[in-house]
């Protein structure tokens, strides 16, 4: 009885933080707990922890924000693993748009990419179970699983085509940065696949592997980059923006935060950034800063449009955690990106039957045209 009473207090104490009326507002929750323990016919089959997690998750779900969530201990561990770029699954980043589980981007070299999953696809069902009403965490937990097992995704492409895609899960390990020097054009090409803690260092290593004194320009490929850690995006962007604002965030708990460049140590060369619908969140921070400061151009198709900031605001003693959307970010020019995205300076559509890489070819042509043209250094 003491244990149950303590849980009632914990229920109300956790959920009444900043609630105003406090205990009076949330006292029905404690009463529901007591009623369940007294009346529910299978009360002994559900633990106190499960009830507590359900209560906290219900409060978060009531926000109607797909990016705010309660993690159980296992979900939180999985989420932390995903930040390191290594986990077991099919290799896609997902979000919720218009109530639908939507693909932000498949990662290269993964079962999702090999299966033809595209940015903007609607995942209607997982293993035959409709995703209607699912949270991101529920979708992620159903799609992930032990390596070697099969998951079947029912996908609707943006053209309306619906198909079932069986995918064999594997251990996903994302290399954050890939680099290639193209001697025929004297151009350094860098693909950034995600922004994690290692990305700025890997980007610097890639950039300084090029013969900078001989380069005609740089291509940074942010296509199908679903984002990652804000601080990593700011630090990485500093390689290209000499000085000034990289991004501004605003939220009720912290007011306004301004993140500035740490100073560019790479020569100001003609810079083309490749973007598409799978370019989201932290990658849009980099792309927008480069565009706003005039130190490069965007080439490709409009970006995804995720301009919100999430933070872990609470951790439970049992290993669970609460992740909340705490603010919105704005570009150096004050633009809001959320649900709008970024419009490329050079719009290059790519049809499914195109051969080659039209966006990359357009970027290389633009760099060739910049010979002798001064490059801005940020503001």
SSE blueprint:
Blueprint: H1 2-15, H2 23-39, H3 48-61, E1 69-71, H4 73-83, E2 86-89, E3 92-97, E4 100-106, H5 111-114, E5 122-126, E6 129-130, H6 136-143, E7 150-156, E8 162-168, E9 170-173, E10 177-182, E11 187-192, H7 199-207, E12 217-221, H8 230-237, E13 245-251, E14 255-260, E15 271-275, H9 282-292, E16 297-300, E17 308-315, E18 321-330, E19 346-347, H10 358-369
Parallel strand pairs: 11-12, 12-15, 15-16, 16-19
Antiparallel strand pairs: 1-18, 2-9, 3-4, 5-6, 5-7, 7-8, 10-11, 13-14, 13-18, 17-18
Determine the mean pLDDT. Answer: 89
Number of helices: 10
N/C terminus separation: 65 Å
Q: Over all CA atoms, what is the radius of gyration? A: 23 Å
Overall helicity: 25-40%
The fraction of residues assigned to DSSP E strands is: 25-35%
The coarse overall form would be: globular
The overall number of domains is 3
**Sheet with most strands: strand arrangement:** 10-11-12-15-16-19
Q: Give the second-level CATH assignment, the architecture of the largest domain.
A: Alpha-Beta Complex
Description:
This protein is α+β, with helices and mostly antiparallel strands and 379 residues long. The protein has three domains: 2-62; 86-173, PDZ domain (Pdz3 Domain, Roll), CATH 2.30.42; 177-369, 2-enoyl-CoA Hydratase, Chain A, domain 1. It contains ten helices and 19 strands. The chain has helices at residues 2-15, 23-39, 48-61, 73-83, 111-114, 136-143, 199-207, 230-237, 282-292, 358-369, and strands at residues 69-71, 86-89, 92-97, 100-106, 122-126, 129-130, 150-156, 162-168, 170-173, 177-182, 187-192, 217-221, 245-251, 255-260, 271-275, 297-300, 308-315, 321-330, 346-347. Strands 10-11-12-15-16-19 form a six-stranded mixed β-sheet, sandwiched between helices. Strands 1, 13, 14, 17 and 18 form a five-stranded antiparallel β-sheet that branches. Strands 6-5-7-8 form a four-stranded antiparallel β-sheet, with helices on one face. Helix 8 (230-237) packs parallel to helix 9 (282-292). The longest helix is centred in the first third of the chain and has 17 residues, at 23-39.
């Amino acid at each position: 009885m003491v244990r149950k009473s303590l849980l009632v207090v914990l229920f109300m104490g956790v959920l009444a933080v900043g609630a105003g009326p406090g205990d009076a507002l949330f006292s029905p929750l404690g009463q529901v707990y007591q009623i369940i323990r007294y009346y529910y016919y299978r009360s002994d089959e559900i633990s106190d922890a499960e009830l507590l997690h359900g209560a906290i998750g219900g409060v978060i779900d009531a926000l109607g924000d797909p990016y705010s969530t309660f993690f159980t201990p296992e979900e939180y561990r999985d989420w932390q693993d995903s930040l390191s770029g290594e986990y077991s699954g099919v290799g896609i980043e997902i979000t919720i748009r218009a109530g639908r589980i939507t693909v932000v981007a498949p990662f290269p070299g993964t079962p999702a990419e090999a299966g033809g999953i595209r940015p903007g696809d609607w995942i209607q069902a997982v293993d035959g179970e409709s995703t209607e009403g699912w949270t991101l965490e529920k979708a992620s937990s159903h799609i992930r699983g032990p390596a070697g097992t099969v998951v079947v995704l029912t996908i609707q492409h943006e053209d309306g085509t619906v198909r079932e895609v069986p995918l064999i899960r594997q251990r996903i390990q994302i290399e954050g940065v890939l680099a290639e020097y193209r001697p025929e054009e004297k151009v350094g090409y860098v693909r950034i696949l995600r922004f994690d803690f290692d990305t700025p260092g890997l980007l610097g290593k890639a950039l300084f592997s090029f013969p900078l004194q001989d380069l005609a320009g740089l291509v940074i490929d942010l296509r199908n980059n679903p984002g990652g850690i804000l601080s990593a995006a700011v630090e990485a962007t500093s390689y290209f923006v000499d000085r000034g604002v990289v991004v501004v965030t605003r939220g009720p708990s912290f007011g306004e935060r301004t993140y500035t460049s740490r100073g560019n140590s790479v020569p100001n060369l003609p810079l083309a950034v490749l973007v598409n619908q799978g370019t989201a969140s932290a990658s849009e921070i980099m792309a927008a800063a480069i565009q706003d400061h005039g130190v490069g151009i965007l080439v490709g198709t409009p970006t995804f449009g995720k301009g919100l900031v999430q933070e872990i605001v609470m951790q439970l003693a049992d290993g669970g955690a609460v992740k909340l959307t705490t603010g919105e970010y704005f570009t150096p020019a004050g633009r809001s990106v959320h649900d709008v995205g970024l419009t490329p300076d050079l719009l290059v559509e790519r049809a499914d039957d195109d051969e080659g890489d039209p966006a990359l070819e357009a970027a290389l042509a633009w760099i060739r045209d910049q010979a002798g043209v001064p490059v801005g250094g940020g503001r």
